[in-house]
Design goal:
It is built from 10 helices and 14 strands. The chain has about 325 residues and is α+β, with helices and mostly antiparallel strands.
């Protein structure tokens, strides 16, 4: 009941004092329906969804960690977290659910030279042509370019109807000239090349985005790789833009291999956007004091008195928002 009342109070505060709004918009009609930007919480990686919070006692993954007696949850008697997985780690939870995920709005074939110094791409928008019919039979025709046919078949595999696939193709045709994937001249980042892993290509590619970001005054946007969404083809480079006055935001990538050919498919997550206030707080570096020791004891109590570290962590957060912390010594 206490938790319910707390959540209701939080809802009332948000209604009374609405948060500043972030706006993601595009000049491409229909793009917001086919590949909308969504909350990161709706794009949790598949591996994370499939991971249990706790493995059964004496399972293969847990056996042999150390020999003490385990509770039914898989935890040792002293309530440590042997049986738990990273699914109970609040740090992973928070970064995977924070911000917004950008799904790829088209499809692209990328080929990197054998020495890694150059790369080229073919996009679905370049190949697409407007189609007036209502069925997707054109996918099977020999007049359609093979890459476009493969991309449309991929979209079909995502569960779209024939009519929707035609609409997707027409959207790609409409986007022709609105976005592209190109390379940047090497002299712009020549001193960075030697810092790249040896296996990486030495070319930086820019994915020109059809999306715009509008944030309230004094808020910026950081672009990062989608958290814990691994791929072995390319790495997204981080960056920050002052989106309270500059709306354009592209995505830069570096291929992870020389001589590689890879696809970026429709709706693949290609970036995670974090919006944050851009003022920088003053800071100090010092020794731990009595208040720090006390705060640390509260945190340790919160974690160690719960079978699952994230529960105590969340309840501590409620204290910060005005709730009662049950873990004070």
């Amino acid at each position: 009941m206490r938790d319910l009342l707390f959540d209701f109070g939080t809802w009332l505060r948000k209604k009374a004092y609405p948060s500043p709004k972030i706006e993601f918009y595009t000049p491409i009609e229909g793009l917001d329906k086919f590949a909308p930007i969504t909350s990161a919480a709706k794009n949790m990686p598949k591996w994370y969804k499939e991971l249990p919070k706790i493995y059964p006692p004496n399972s293969e993954r847990q056996d042999g960690i150390h020999g003490e007696k385990l509770l039914p949850t898989g935890n040792p008697v002293e309530w440590r977290t042997v049986g738990e997985t990273v699914k109970t780690c609040p740090g992973l939870q928070d970064i995977m659910t924070a911000g917004y995920v950008v799904p790829f709005w088209g499809s692209a074939l990328v080929e990197v030279s054998q020495d890694g110094t150059s790369a080229a791409s073919v996009t679905s928008s370049v190949n697409a042509t407007h189609y007036d019919g209502q069925s997707a039979d054109f996918i099977k025709t020999t007049t359609a370019k093979s890459s476009l046919r493969e991309w449309c078949q991929y979209v079909q595999g995502l569960g779209y109807s024939d009519k929707e696939i035609v609409a997707w193709n027409n959207l790609q045709a409409k986007m022709k000239g609105q976005w592209e994937i190109g390379t940047h001249p090497a002299h712009q980042y020549s001193t960075m090349i030697n810092q790249l892993p040896e296996s990486y290509a030495s070319t930086v590619m820019k994915i020109v985005s059809p999306w715009r970001i509008k944030t309230p005054k004094n808020f910026s946007t950081m672009v990062m790789p989608p958290a814990y969404n691994w791929n072995d083809a390319y790495e997204v480079l981080p960056g920050i833009i002052n989106t309270d006055y500059y709306r354009l935001f592209n995505v830069f990538i570096v291929p992870r291999q020389k001589g590689i050919k890879f696809q970026i498919q429709f709706k693949d997550p290609i970036a995670q956007w974090f919006v944050f206030p851009k003022h920088q707080l003053p800071y100090e570096v010092r020794q731990q004091n009595e208040q720090d020791t006390y705060d640390q004891k509260v945190a340790v109590n919160a974690i160690h008195t719960n079978w699952g570290s994230s529960k105590g962590y969340r309840m501590m957060g409620r204290k910060q928002e005005g709730g009662r912390c049950p873990y004070k010594p």
